Amino acid sequence: MTYPSLKFLILSLYFSIILGCAEIELKTITEDVKKVFQEKLVTDQEIISAFKQMLEMATLKSVETLSQSQGFMNDPDVAITFPKEALKLEQTLRKVGFSSLCDEFYESMNLAAEKAVAEATPLFLNAISHITFMEATKLLKGDETAITSFLKQKTFTALVSKFNPVVTEQLEKNKVTKNWNKMIEKYNKFPLVKPVQSDLAQHVTEKTIEGLFFYMAKEERLIRQNPSQRTTQLLQKVFAQVD
Prior knowledge:
Oligomer: single chain
Strand content: under 5%
Structural class: mainly alpha
Radius of gyration: 30 Å
Low-confidence stretches: 7-11, 24-38
Number of helices: 10
Distance between the termini: 60 Å
């Protein structure tokens, strides 16, 4: 065998070995990847069920937190303050010696929200039951509060309608409306002030709902960011798809 022929044979053997090893390695990697996807594969029904499960858990936990004694008032993130258009009123009344009246009003507003918030549970659960697979799949892959935002969009109007009578009743029961009217009357007698007109029940209603969604978004973030918060096998399996 001539020298060029021998050199060609050696090079051929070398490249055959290299390509053979590469083929084996590529096959191994492909099989590993395939195995991983097979292990994580979830059905349409599992996605829907996990989605609903997460929302139900977030709803119940949020309602439980906010309906506790002073659940709103002691939480600066959701505490209900004077309506925006009445902040000047509060400042003025406190300056002229009516701080106790303002404090009583503040406490009463938050108590009304605390009593009303449990009304959200059946509305949320009903909205959750009508979620489609396409909606669930899209939202699972969305940002860290996509599911909460979706639910808010779906239920906010219905929640306002449901909450408003309950809030109004609680405001009347806890003398909030009476206190509000007293403060308005006192304030509007001051010279050179702009008379305050505000729908108090609507204000408390909307702030109650905002507080509820604040906590739901918080729960959603925890489940998305922290696998230890996925307390069921189904949540662990489905959310592994979007990690």
